[in-house]
Automatic annotation (TrEMBL):
It holds the Pfam family MCPsignal. Belongs to the methyl-accepting chemotaxis (MCP) protein family. One of its GO terms (biological process) is chemotaxis. It comes from Pyxidicoccus fallax. InterPro entries: Chemotax_Me-accpt_rcpt, HAMP_dom, MCPsignal_dom. It comes from the Bacteria. The keyword Transmembrane helix applies. GO terms for molecular function: transmembrane signaling receptor activity. This is Methyl-accepting chemotaxis protein.
Amino acid sequence: MRFKHKVLLLPVLAAVFLVAIIGFSELLGRSTREHLQRIEKGYVPAVLLSRDLDDLLQQLQRTLQDAVAAEDTEQLDEADALVERFLARVAEGRANTVIEAARLDALEAQVRDYARIARETSARMIQKDPDAASRLPEMSARYTRVKEALQRGTEDDQRKMGESFVFMMEEHGNSQKRMVLLGALLIAVLASLSVWLVAQVARPLGRLTEVASRIATDGDLTQEISIPSRDEVGMLAQSFNQLVLRLRTIPLTLQESLKELAGSVERLTHISREQSQHLTRQAASLEEATLAMRDIESSSRSASSQAGTVLEVASRAESLSVAGQARLKESGVALEHLRAQVGGLMPTIGQLTESSAKAAAIIQTVKDLADQSNVLAINAAIEAARSGDQGRGFSVVAREMRSLAQQSMRSTQSIGALLSEMAATVRAVTTSVETSHREMAAGISEALASGQSLQGMAEAVQHSSQAAQDIVTSVTRQNAGITQMTAVVTDFSKMMKDSVQTNQDVESAIDRLNVAFARIQGLVGGFRV
């Protein structure tokens, strides 16, 4: 039975019982009206008719007595008129259904018989007939029979009227009892139906309310609602059970997803820490490279200054050689001084060569770190792709780290090329300086051995001046390259610091993600499945 049918059952039954009560009331009223109508239009007119007939009989008796006493025959006519009125009233009584027709027929016959004998006796007595007196007992007996018949009829009508009234009262009482029983039955049925409705509707709804409250307050999803009814309440209970089953799967799915995400976050944290360590080592290496480049720049400046000094000395030597043989001794001393300076320049150039080699090794280390950063960025991008939408931010970071690593590789390659060029330049300068040194030594030896070799010494001085000019040019180019490489290394160091800061921001984001996971786990843990 549907819920709406159950709800409508109570008012429908109440309406049916109300209609039944109204029907019984109508039947009771109809029966009462019939009895009252029977009494009012039957027995009461019958009793009144009997009384009227008794009065007419008495009037007839008095009229006959008065006629005999007055010896007036005209009063006999009045007696006849009374007889006619009596018979007319009897005829009217035939229309009453409660009066038996046989009784009226017998009464009419008795009245006619009495009226005939009484008129004849009265007429004879008025005429002074001596035999009239002998008929008086018979007339009196006839009068007595009519009087008794009227009295019996009146008593019978009164008795029947009382019996009808008593029957009506009994039937009214029985009807009232039936009405009371019907009302009690109605109350019992409605009470039973109310209890049934409470069991069918209110209790299941109360159970649903209790389960919903426990789910809302305690998060208990282990409950089940067992309602065997197939109405809307039962369908609601089944739908609620299906909802609870669906809700059970949500915390389980969330827990599994949180475990997977926690593992991914842990792996990302480990990767981020390793990346941070690699970036820290790279930053330290770049810092060392920066310091080395600064040392190289300082050595290059010193070499440039010394090359300028060599150039100045060569110029002086050339002017001294032109001045003449007289100052040959002074030129020899100057050439010895120049050779000493060139000999001092050789260790400086050697240091420059060693610094270039160190810088090349550092650049190779930076290149290796950049390759590792690129590999880590690719791994981070793969992990971010596995994490889906939640790893999208980390994917952006991984892409930037990969771009930074690629830029580092390109910068490293540029610096390596510059260092290679600088090393070649340094080797060329070294070769040139060694050649100049040998030539200067040969020239000085030749100048010291023979003052006649001034022209050769002048040429040697010119060669030395040209070599010094080449050295100055090479050292100047080397200085410019070293300055550019220092700027590149400085920029790369700054970029590496930015990468370290970005990685720290990623670690901070991962920490916030761990906090969010902890909150979600706490929320999911609040449900019992």
